[in-house]
Each structure stands twice: as C-alpha cells, then as structure tokens.
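The authors assume throughout that readers already know how a fold can be written as discrete tokens. For illustration, here is how one protein appears when written out as sequence plus structure tokens:
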Amino acid sequence: MEKNKTGKYLKYAIGEVILVVIGILIALQINNSNEIRKDKNEEAIILSDIKDDFIATRLNFLETIKKQEKTLLRSRDLIDAIEAQDYSIHPDTIREKIRMGAFSHNRVEAVMGSYDAIIGSGKTSIIKNKELLTLLANFSSQYKAGFEDEIKSNYPLNLMQTVSKDFYSALSSNAERGSLALKKKYTLKEKEIAVKNLYENESFLAFLLQKTRWESVRVTHQKRLLKSLNKVLYQFNFNELTPEKELYSRYIGNYSNSENKVINKISYANESLYVNFASGGTWELVQFNNSLFYVIDFNLMLDFSSDDDSITKISLQLLDKNPVEFKKVEN
C-alpha cells in the first residue's frame, strides 16, 4: 500500500478468486457429467431388466390364457354331456373333461421383480420415459389388485371335489395318481356306473356351472391384463408386437365370406382394434402377435394374413370349431 500497489494486488486477488470459481465450476460439471452417465447406465440396466421380466410375463400370460380357454371349453362340454345325459361319450373322455376342465385352474403369474425393486428403492426418477412409468404403474396396480373372482371360482371347485366321491375314483387315471395309484383297476362297466352317478349328481352340476361362470370372468380379466402388458412392451419396440395404432391402417375395413356373404368389419378406436359382426356386437381385441388377436370377452381368435394378390384375409376360429375365412373388400 505504501508503494501504491493496492490496485495491482486487488486485480491479482480477483483473478485468483475467478480461477478458483472456474475450477469449482469445471469440477462440478465433470461430476454432473459423471452422475448423468452413471444414471443413464443405471437406467439402461433397469430398463433391460424390466423388458426381460415383461417378455417372460407375456409368455406366461399367453400360455395360461390358451390353457384357460381350453379349460372353459372342456367344462362347457361336460355341462352339455350332463344335461343331455349323453352315455355315448366314453368314460375316459368324461374323465378328461373333469380332470382338464372342471378340476383345472390356471392363474397368470407376472414377473415383477425389477419393477418392484425400483419402486422399493425410490429410483423411479431414473426412468425418463414418463409414459412408460405410467403404463408400468397401471399394469402393476391392475395385477396386484388380485382376483376377487378367483376366490369365487376356487370355492365351487372345492365343493365339486367334495361331492365327487361317488364317481371320481373310478374315473381318475393311474397316471394322474402317480405314486398314490390305487391297486384296484376299474372295469369299463364300473366306469360307466361312475358316469351315471356323475350325471345324477345335481350338486356337482350346480357347482360346475358356478365355477365355469367365474372362470370365464377370470380369463376375460387375464386378457385385459395382457392388453396392459402389451402397452408396456410397445414402449420397448418389442419385435413380436406392433402397436395397434400402427396396425390399424393395415387391418381396418370390411370383410366378406364368399359362401354366405356375411360382412364383418374391423375398426379402430381408443388405441384398440375391434371386430364388428354383421349379426350384431362390437368386441375389443387383444394382440397375441402381429397377426394373431383374441376377442377379450369370449374364445374367438382372429388370424390376419395376405394372399398372393396382397388382399388381407382373416381366419376366424372358435377354439372348438373349424376356422372360417373372410377377405377384405372395398369399403
């Protein structure tokens, strides 16, 4: 100060402060870049795990829904046989209708470990795709809400098994019993008597009707879960699924059956494909793959394809009937 150098020292001090601040800012920037890179890497791992879980869940759902629809068909066949008192059906066939229909129960199982882990850790903010987060939350809440109707279908199942003592031993198979196989081998005559006892068991029929009704509700719910699951996988560009909003331009339109001139229509609304029957009724579809769809509310499959002239066709098939083919016609 005595030598009049205050201004010089001030400039030097300010320069030092500026350099320190710049150094701090650079360090913060590097640290932020590292954190962003770490978050992106962690997000990529989480998304990959979620995708793998949902692909596995989808396979479980597809298999279970197919089994469940076959269960319903066998149960309905058994109801028809009991109502008609149809003794022309072989007892072994009746046994299969009971074992794989009346006494069968199929539940969809979702693999939710990865999603539950990020919810538990509070790291949902790492996922930047907000639409994906919403779809994941919707599926999780829908799945974890449980099946009130599952309880209602299990109750008559237990009652059916309780009242089956007069016929089921003779109709059950050794393969089914495994290590608990009975030593007694039932004759055809004894099996026929067992079928008669079944047909005369009004309690069994009443419980079977109840269970079949609730199993039908359950399979509809399972298909709606599949619909929600598909929406999650659309976000991952899963190659076995194309969003319905991208498929609709290929499939919508009128379809004609050349034999009876019945016209059906495929329409699109609210990000879903629908089938409209000329006989009445509009039914929402759920996608199994890019060409195969199921009606959500009953057991009808629609398989889309193209012929050599690039005309779109639909094969409509109830699971217990032969397929019927329709071709797309000009609107």
Summary: The chain is about 60% helix and 15% strand. The mean pLDDT is 87.
